[in-house]
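Record NADH-quinone oxidoreductase subunit A, 123 aa.
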Amino acid sequence: MGSEAAPLNYIPILIFIVIAFAFGAVQILLGRIVRPSRPYRAKLAPYESGSPLFSDARVQFPIRYYIIAMLFVIFDIEIVFMFPWAVAFKKLGLVGLVEMVVFIAILIVGFWYAWKKGALEWD
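=>
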C-alpha cells in the first residue's frame, strides 16, 4: 500500500462532515429568513413572560452543599467499582478482596475526615 491510499479513504468522511455542517447552516439561515419577527414589550421582557424579576438569580450556596455533592459522587463511583468486583469475586480471590478493603478504607477515611470537619452536620 502506498502512502496515498490512506488520505483518499478519508475523503467520503470529509464530504459527509461538510454536508452535515452545510445542512445545519442552511436550516438556521432558512429559519431566520422564514419565521416572523414581531417583538413587543412583554416578549422582550425577562423569561419572555413579562413577569418582573424579584431577586438576583445568582444565589450563594453554602460550601457544605458542594461537599455533600462531592461525597455523593465519590460514593456513587464506589458502587460502580463494586459491581464488577462482585461479579468477578471468585476469580479475583484474596488479592481482589484485599484491594477492595483498601479501597473502601480510603473512602471511609475521607468520609470520617469530612464528618470531623463539620461538612456533614445535619441541622
